[in-house]
Amino acid sequence: MKKLLLAVVAMMLIPLAAMAGMTAISDSELQDVEGQIGISITMTMTVTAATQAWEDGDGYTSCTSTGAVVLSGMVMPTISLSAVDIDVGTCGGTSYLAINTGASNIITGDTTITDLVIGNSASASSASLGKIVTTGLAIGFGTIKINGH
Asked: 68-81 in b/e burial notation, b at 16+ Cβ within 10 A?
Protein backbone atom coordinates (compact mmCIF):
# COMPACT_ATOMS: atom_id res chain seq x y z
CA MET A 1 0.00 0.00 0.00
CA LYS A 2 2.87 2.36 0.85
CA LYS A 3 4.44 1.77 -2.58
CA LEU A 4 1.15 2.63 -4.33
CA LEU A 5 0.75 5.82 -2.28
CA LEU A 6 4.36 6.80 -2.99
CA ALA A 7 3.83 6.22 -6.75
CA VAL A 8 0.64 8.37 -6.78
CA VAL A 9 2.39 11.23 -4.94
CA ALA A 10 5.38 11.03 -7.35
CA MET A 11 3.04 11.21 -10.37
CA MET A 12 1.31 14.26 -8.89
CA LEU A 13 4.65 16.06 -8.50
CA ILE A 14 5.74 15.58 -12.15
CA PRO A 15 3.52 18.43 -13.52
CA LEU A 16 4.80 20.76 -10.76
CA ALA A 17 8.40 20.00 -11.71
CA ALA A 18 7.66 20.70 -15.37
CA MET A 19 6.10 24.09 -14.56
CA ALA A 20 9.00 25.13 -12.32
CA GLY A 21 11.11 25.98 -15.38
CA MET A 22 8.46 28.28 -16.95
CA THR A 23 8.89 32.05 -16.66
CA ALA A 24 6.58 34.86 -17.75
CA ILE A 25 7.70 37.08 -20.65
CA SER A 26 7.14 40.80 -20.85
CA ASP A 27 4.75 42.54 -23.27
CA SER A 28 7.69 43.86 -25.31
CA GLU A 29 9.16 40.33 -25.61
CA LEU A 30 5.73 38.99 -26.62
CA GLN A 31 5.43 41.72 -29.26
CA ASP A 32 8.60 40.40 -30.91
CA VAL A 33 7.05 36.93 -31.28
CA GLU A 34 5.94 36.48 -34.90
CA GLY A 35 2.19 36.02 -35.34
CA GLN A 36 1.17 37.32 -31.93
CA ILE A 37 0.14 40.85 -32.96
CA GLY A 38 -3.24 41.26 -34.61
CA ILE A 39 -5.13 38.80 -36.80
CA SER A 40 -4.92 38.20 -40.57
CA ILE A 41 -7.78 36.61 -42.52
CA THR A 42 -7.78 35.25 -46.08
CA MET A 43 -11.08 33.97 -47.47
CA THR A 44 -13.06 33.65 -50.71
CA MET A 45 -16.84 33.18 -50.71
CA THR A 46 -19.44 32.88 -53.46
CA VAL A 47 -23.11 33.35 -52.56
CA THR A 48 -25.95 31.72 -54.48
CA ALA A 49 -29.65 31.46 -53.67
CA ALA A 50 -32.09 29.25 -55.57
CA THR A 51 -35.09 31.47 -54.74
CA GLN A 52 -35.71 34.76 -52.96
CA ALA A 53 -39.33 35.87 -52.60
CA TRP A 54 -41.48 38.57 -51.07
CA GLU A 55 -44.98 37.29 -50.43
CA ASP A 56 -47.89 39.54 -49.50
CA GLY A 57 -50.48 37.45 -47.66
CA ASP A 58 -53.35 39.94 -47.80
CA GLY A 59 -52.99 41.45 -51.29
CA TYR A 60 -53.95 45.07 -51.86
CA THR A 61 -57.20 47.09 -52.12
CA SER A 62 -59.79 44.92 -53.93
CA CYS A 63 -57.22 42.23 -54.86
CA THR A 64 -57.13 40.46 -51.51
CA SER A 65 -55.58 37.13 -52.55
CA THR A 66 -51.92 36.36 -51.88
CA GLY A 67 -49.36 37.78 -54.29
CA ALA A 68 -45.58 37.37 -54.53
CA VAL A 69 -42.49 38.70 -56.27
CA VAL A 70 -40.05 35.81 -56.83
CA LEU A 71 -36.36 36.09 -57.77
CA SER A 72 -34.92 32.79 -59.03
CA GLY A 73 -31.40 31.65 -59.83
CA MET A 74 -29.60 34.40 -57.93
CA VAL A 75 -25.79 34.45 -58.14
CA MET A 76 -23.97 37.17 -56.21
CA PRO A 77 -20.45 38.46 -56.86
CA THR A 78 -17.43 36.79 -55.28
CA ILE A 79 -16.44 38.09 -51.86
CA SER A 80 -12.68 37.79 -51.42
CA LEU A 81 -10.71 38.77 -48.34
CA SER A 82 -6.98 38.57 -48.91
CA ALA A 83 -4.70 39.20 -45.93
CA VAL A 84 -7.22 41.37 -44.09
CA ASP A 85 -5.52 42.67 -40.94
CA ILE A 86 -7.46 43.16 -37.72
CA ASP A 87 -5.63 45.11 -35.05
CA VAL A 88 -6.25 47.22 -31.95
CA GLY A 89 -4.49 50.44 -30.95
CA THR A 90 -4.85 53.80 -29.24
CA CYS A 91 -4.36 57.11 -31.01
CA GLY A 92 -4.95 60.55 -29.49
CA GLY A 93 -6.58 59.03 -26.39
CA THR A 94 -9.11 56.96 -28.37
CA SER A 95 -8.80 53.19 -28.73
CA TYR A 96 -9.76 51.62 -32.05
CA LEU A 97 -10.41 48.24 -33.56
CA ALA A 98 -9.02 48.64 -37.08
CA ILE A 99 -9.93 46.32 -39.94
CA ASN A 100 -7.64 46.95 -42.91
CA THR A 101 -8.91 45.32 -46.11
CA GLY A 102 -6.01 46.62 -48.19
CA ALA A 103 -6.22 48.47 -51.49
CA SER A 104 -8.02 45.70 -53.41
CA ASN A 105 -11.75 45.31 -53.83
CA ILE A 106 -13.53 42.94 -51.45
CA ILE A 107 -16.53 42.28 -53.69
CA THR A 108 -16.03 41.88 -57.44
CA GLY A 109 -18.00 40.36 -60.27
CA ASP A 110 -21.54 40.21 -61.58
CA THR A 111 -24.93 39.74 -59.96
CA THR A 112 -27.42 37.66 -61.91
CA ILE A 113 -31.08 36.85 -61.23
CA THR A 114 -32.27 34.35 -63.83
CA ASP A 115 -36.02 35.04 -63.46
CA LEU A 116 -38.18 37.79 -61.98
CA VAL A 117 -41.68 36.37 -61.52
CA ILE A 118 -44.85 37.99 -60.21
CA GLY A 119 -47.26 35.28 -59.13
CA ASN A 120 -49.66 34.10 -56.44
CA SER A 121 -47.10 32.51 -54.06
CA ALA A 122 -43.40 32.32 -53.22
CA SER A 123 -43.19 29.14 -55.30
CA ALA A 124 -44.57 30.76 -58.48
CA SER A 125 -42.36 29.98 -61.47
CA SER A 126 -44.26 30.97 -64.63
CA ALA A 127 -44.69 34.28 -66.46
CA SER A 128 -41.16 35.57 -65.93
CA LEU A 129 -40.62 39.28 -66.53
CA GLY A 130 -37.03 38.51 -67.56
CA LYS A 131 -33.50 38.48 -66.22
CA ILE A 132 -31.74 41.04 -64.01
CA VAL A 133 -27.96 41.49 -64.38
CA THR A 134 -25.50 43.86 -62.72
CA THR A 135 -22.01 43.67 -64.25
CA GLY A 136 -18.61 44.96 -63.20
CA LEU A 137 -19.52 45.41 -59.54
CA ALA A 138 -16.48 46.38 -57.42
CA ILE A 139 -16.64 47.31 -53.74
CA GLY A 140 -13.62 48.07 -51.54
CA PHE A 141 -13.37 49.41 -48.00
CA GLY A 142 -9.73 50.28 -47.19
CA THR A 143 -9.54 50.62 -43.39
CA ILE A 144 -12.57 50.45 -41.11
CA LYS A 145 -12.01 51.91 -37.62
CA ILE A 146 -14.38 51.05 -34.78
CA ASN A 147 -14.37 52.67 -31.35
CA GLY A 148 -16.70 53.02 -28.38
CA HIS A 149 -18.16 56.31 -27.22
From this structure: bbbbbebbbbbbbb
Query: What is the spatial distance between Cα 87 and Cα 103, in angstroms, rounded to a whole number?
Result: 17
pLDDT in tens, the chain (149 residues): 556 666 655 566 665 555 556 677 787 776 776 655 677 778 788 888 888 888 888 888 888 888 889 988 888 888 887 777 888 888 888 888 888 887 777 888 888 988 999 988 888 888 888 998 988 888 888 888 888 76
Among 73, 77, 75, 76, which residue's Cα sits nearest to residue 116?
Answer: 73
Q: In sequence order, what are the residues at sequence separation of 6 or more whose Cβ sits closer than 8 angstroms to the Cβ of residue 141? A: 99, 101, 106
Q: Assign 3-class secondary structure to the chain.
A: CHHHHHHHHHHHHHHHHHHHCCCCCCHHHHHCCCCCCCEEEEEEEEEEEEEEEEEECCCECCECCCEEEEEEEEEEEEEEEEEEEEEEEEECCEEEEEEECCCCCCEEEEEEEEEEEEECCCCCCCCECCCEEEEEEEECCCEEEECCC
